[in-house]
Amino acid sequence: MNYDVFNGDADGIISLTMLRRAQPLNAELVTGRKRDIALLDRVDAGEGDHVTVLDVSMKTNGAALRRILDAGAKVFYADHHNAGDIPEHPNLEAHINTASEVCTAVLIDNYLDGAYRAWTVAAAFGDNFSAMAHRLAVGHDLPLASLDELGMLINYNGYGGSVDDLLFHPEDLYREVCAFDTPMDFLSKKGRIFKALQKGFREDMATVSGAKVLDETSGGLVIGLQDSASSRRASGTYGNQLAQENPDRAHAILTAQETEAGAGYLVSIRAPLSKREGADRLAMQFETGGGRAAAAGINHLPEKALGDFINAFQSAF
Ligand SMILES: [Mn+2]
Fold it and tell me: How far is the CA of 299 from the centre of ligand 1 (A)?
């Protein structure tokens, strides 16, 4: 049995597309929304099985990876997130690079000697590596604006509170994308899917652009979004957009949610683009917080902790 395990964002979907164009293989697909990254927990592989893993942290999947390797399966693993300790195991082929200017599609591009460069450029745009996308395109005659929009839209499709929120299940979107050697072919043959993503994106962004300002200072902006699928889909891209328009300002987007723990917010924090630090320290002051210095989040901020959060945000930025 073969398993193709991949993040449900642009980098994951496009990395697998390139790999399977070059090396066709029938495999069971294992994926989910962008934030579902503990994907190897769902794989029960052993002797004689092949597992390919793309664009999910090896640290998060470490225990499941060791279980699968020890059970005798062969694993090909390519990723750019925090890897933790990479196991020394004869069954593991690891392509890990956590440098800040690398995404998984670039690792696959290197592995395949640039055979699907246009896809790599779209994936780099989708993972928010615009400068790198432009560098990768040098010497290739590519429609950069279209590749930028396609990468961004596939990335946007991965955001949501559950797969039910998403316009396309990432597995279905992969099946549509993987039939094409280039994103230009995909765009000309599958314009319907591109238009559906464009339309959803436009509507979601219109919904969130009227959002409530909860706090505003020279150093930061805190935005509140209502509890809706539109908010959950658009918040990530909206945060990136606000950050690009105001690079010296920190941002927090609080999306209202009802959970078993009660009413509260899903919080996404972005440090200023011009000084990418402090987001993780702020998030970790709260029970369900975590993330990186530049971008962090809190899975559930109780309603009554909103004032504490705004105070902590103001002193952090
Ligand atoms: Mn990625």
Answer: 21
Does residue 100 carry a pLDDT above 80? no
Contacts by residues 258-261 (CB-CB < 8 Å, ≥ 24 positions apart): 258/227, 259/300, 261/300, 261/302
Distance 110 CA to ligand 1 centre (A): 15
How confident is the model at residue 295, as a pLDDT? 83
Token pair of 172 as six digits: 């279905």
Class of domain 212-316: alpha beta
CA 262 to ligand 1 center in whole angstroms: 32
Give me ligand 1 centre to Cα 265, in Å.
26
Residue ranges of domains in the chain: 2-200, 212-316
The domain 2-200 is placed in CATH, from the list 1.10.10, 2.40.50, 1.10.3210, 3.90.1640, at 3.90.1640
**CA of 1 relative to ligand 1 center, distance in Å:** 26
- 3 has pLDDT over 90: yes
Q: Of 53, 48, 61, which Cα lies nearest the Cα of 29? A: 53
The pTM of the whole model exceeds 0.70 = yes
Q: How far is the CA of 127 from the centre of ligand 1 (A)?
A: 6
For every residue of 182-194, which 3-state class applies, written as one string? CHHHHHHHCHHHH
